[in-house]
Amino acid sequence: MRVSTNSLYLNNVSNMLGKQSALYKVQEQLSTLRKVNRPSDDPVAASQILDQTQAKDRIEQFNQNAKAAESSLALSGTSLQAAGDVLQQVRQMAIQAGNTTLTNEDRNMLNSELEGLYKQLLGYANTLDGNGKALFGGSISQTKPYSELQQFGSVVAAGSSIVQYNGDANRQEMMISSARQVPVTDNGQYVFGSIPEGNGLFKLGAGSALSNVQVDLGSVVDRAKFDAQVAGPLALPTGALSQAGARIEVVFGSEDDGVAGQATEFNKYYDVVLFDGAAYTSLVTGKSGATAAAASDLYTASAEQVAVGNPAIGPFAKSYPKFQSGADINLNFSTNPAPYNIDFGAKFAMTSEAPANGGVLTLEPSKTRSIFDTLNDLSRVLQSNAATPADATDFANRLGNVIANIDNTQTRILSVEARIGANRNEADALVEVGADFSLQYKAILSRLQDVDVASAASELSLAKLALDASQNSFAKVQGLSLFNYI
């Protein structure tokens, strides 16, 4: 076979270039320690490397998010724990204020200390993280959550507040896994602002005529029945307290038993009147009207006019329950005519002397109040003068309401702390799991793209040897010529 000089040169140059390319490829692998430096090196492996790298980057980003979330949650938990400590001090102060041996000067000193605790609590509610973002402003993190509207200890109009919440009801969340977001800020209105009054379900309030009577917080004995009264439609026997402004009034009065042949004896009785926002209805007698007095004689009538045993009054007046100090007043009635068969599922006790005639105790669904207003209420109580027995009883009732609201706030803070603790534990666990996943992805990537240095070094020597042999053989072949033999 004849081989032209041109073909000889082309073939040998092509062979040398191929061996040189192989040498450079191995040399590049050794210099980068990667066996896949471009998709053309290994298209299948390059695709797998891209997928695994993206997965590893996602996991590492989630880990960073989880660490940041854990840091914010830890700061929130610390602030709430400190706030709880402040509230415990305030609660002890309220109990101390109830000591009858304290003078007005003593209470003024307590009030000065209370103002300092109020400022501390307000500071905890306005806590910022390391980036200057508010932790209790909801999704509004660049504004201080709470600002003061009035000076501490001043009189606050009904329906107003001593502070203003500048945040919102949302929470900022951070993605810590592909399927989980955790809140890193809280709704400060929920934590510090929307605290239920009373026992958390209903609130009892005593009028001026009942200032000599100490009332407990009351309790719900049947939650389903109570909820039906508060949440149902405005119709007896359910939903009696659902309309705005609706309330129960318990009115007290003395009545002549009117037993024939016996001396006149006056006992203390009470009536339970429902105000539905428009009219009053006695749940004992069934009487109703546009005014309280039209629904129950006990508001204004004399003892002779409302004598239980007086048949001239009619059959309903005979149903008035008798009051006994310390005994429970159960708000459940079954009277005629229908539909006045009602059970509020609630009860309370009055633990002091008999209430004054015409005295009214109100019961309404629990409203919400900020803890800052509760502390201001305590300040107002400490500024009051309990000079008479009636003033002292009113003082004790107001202190009882303050302590109840503090207890409700502590319960709220503890529930938020528990949720924060659970989220912190979850973030910590995901950091550990994410670290394990990251190691696995790195191992897979190493198998796909990392070069075996020993093998590559051996391959480099072979490639260089092959290139040298090709170059040397070509040098010898290209020097052959017939003219050397002529």
From TrEMBL:
Similarity annotation? Belongs to the bacterial flagellin family.
An example Gene Ontology biological process = bacterial-type flagellum-dependent cell motility
Molecular function per GO: structural molecule activity
Q: What is this protein called?
A: Flagellar hook-associated protein 3 FlgL
Give one Pfam family, short name only: Flagellin_N
**Keywords for the protein's UniProt record, in alphabetical order:** Bacterial flagellum, Cell projection, Cilium, Flagellum
> Looking at the record's lineage, which domain of life comes first?
Bacteria
Major subcellular location class? other
Gene Ontology cellular component annotations, sorted alphabetically: bacterial-type flagellum hook; extracellular region
Q: Which organism is it from?
A: Rivihabitans pingtungensis
Annotated ranges, domain Flagellin N-terminal: 3-139
**InterPro entries this protein is in?**
Flagell_FlgL, Flagellin, Flagellin_N
Provide the protein's localization. Bacterial flagellum; Secreted
